[in-house]
Amino acid sequence: MITVIPSADRYSADHGWLQTHWHFSFADYYDPKNMNWSALRVFNDDIVKAGGGFDFHPHKDMEIVSYIVDGELEHRDRLGNRHTNKPGEVQVMSAGRGIVHAENNPSKSDMRLIQLWILPRNKNNEPRWEQKPYTRADRHNRLLQVVAPTDHPVDGVLTIDQDASIFVSALDAGKEVTHNQVGTHAYLFVIAGEVSVNGKTLKNGDQARVADEKSLAIKAAGDAEFILLDLP
């Protein structure tokens, strides 16, 4: 089963410094029928204006993954980590028993990031932060795995405490990739362009919620970029 949700059906908000699309019930958007998809609790597509950001705030018992689409995102936390993420970079923050952090756009241009919150298998884990750079060449015309489960690590890939994997891809027009499902759910979001997933069309900003599909054939109608989650 593949359910396509058009971009226009997402909840959108403009806070001046932040323009956001929330795919699930979050903050002042509450919908008890749209709380999560499997272990995926939050999927936010954010544009942060130059100089804007989130001041120090706490998180607990959540695996938080950020994927930088355009611009720069500076991360700071009370563990002593500080880093400015660039396009294509992936950041994992395992909040565990508690972490306090801040994020901001230090540049003079807008930045765009995809932020995912995934429910962990265990509570009160040791909090940690990790980051890894990836280039467009790394994901060009292939599925690039950027996140794996902690108990099934992959060389050069960040990990989270959940039976979930995350992939990104940049496909040329007409190119196709295939993903064989490990979990029973999947989630695909089109960052740019247009793709088909097992024959169903998704345009820029559309999402697909997938259940009980053994294989996903993803083909680009034109040049396209997307993010894919394999979920329990």
UniProtKB/TrEMBL annotation:
Pfam families: Pirin, Pirin_C_2
UniProt: Fe cation binding residues: H57, H59, H101, E103
Cofactor note: Binds 1 Fe cation per subunit.
Keyword field: Iron, Metal-binding
Residue span(s) of domain Pirin N-terminal: 12-118
Sequence ranges assigned to domain Quercetin 2,3-dioxygenase C-terminal cupin in this UniProt record: 153-231
Molecular function GO terms recorded: metal ion binding
Residues annotated as signal peptide: none
Thylakoid keyword on record: no
Cofactor entry: Fe cation
Family: Belongs to the pirin family.
Protein name: Pirin family protein
Organism from which the protein derives: Humisphaera borealis
